[in-house]
């Protein structure tokens, strides 16, 4: 099962709103508002790499409150 972490920069003051929207999105299993260079971190799990790509490009990156993203696809774990 493909997994990715998406590091997100939001418009100023929209961190909580983006977090709420992402938590309601299917296949996004964890969402955290963080301090530092990025504002929100989301964990995405999907059945296929194509589905993962669709979630990132169609569901996350198209939110109007998001300024930029950096996607890290997991290649090994646990």
Could you state the order of secondary-structure elements as H and E? EHEEHE
Shape assignment: globular
Please give the largest β-sheet: 4 strands, antiparallel
What share of the residues lie within helices? 25-40%
Question: So how many helices?
Answer: 2
The average pLDDT is 96
Question: Strand pairing plus helix content: what structural class?
Answer: alpha+beta
Global Rg = 12 Å
Q: Can you count the beta strands? A: 4
Low-confidence spans: none
Beta-strand level of the residues, as a percent range? 35-45%
End-to-end separation in angstroms reads 13 Å
Strand order across the largest sheet: 2-3-1-4
Question: If you had to describe this structure to a student in words, what would you say it looks like?
Answer:
The chain is an alpha+beta fold and 78 residues long. The protein has two helices and four strands. It has a four-stranded antiparallel β-sheet with strand order 2-3-1-4, covered by helices on one side. The radius of gyration is 12 Å and the shape is globular. It starts with a strand and ends in a 5-residue tail after the last strand.
In short:
The protein has 78 residues and is α+β, with helices and mostly antiparallel strands. The protein has helices spanning 15-23, 49-60; strands at residues 3-10, 28-33, 40-45, 66-73. The model has no long low-confidence stretch (mean pLDDT 96).
């Amino acid at each position: 099962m493909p997994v990715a972490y998406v590091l997100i920069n939001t418009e100023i003051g929209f961190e909580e709103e983006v977090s709420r929207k992402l938590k309601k999105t299917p296949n996004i299993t964890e969402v955290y508002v963080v301090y530092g260079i990025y504002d929100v971190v989301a964990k995405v799990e999907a059945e296929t790499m194509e589905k993962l790509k669709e979630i990132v490009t169609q569901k996350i990156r198209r939110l109007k409150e998001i300024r930029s993203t950096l996607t890290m696809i997991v290649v090994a774990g646990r």
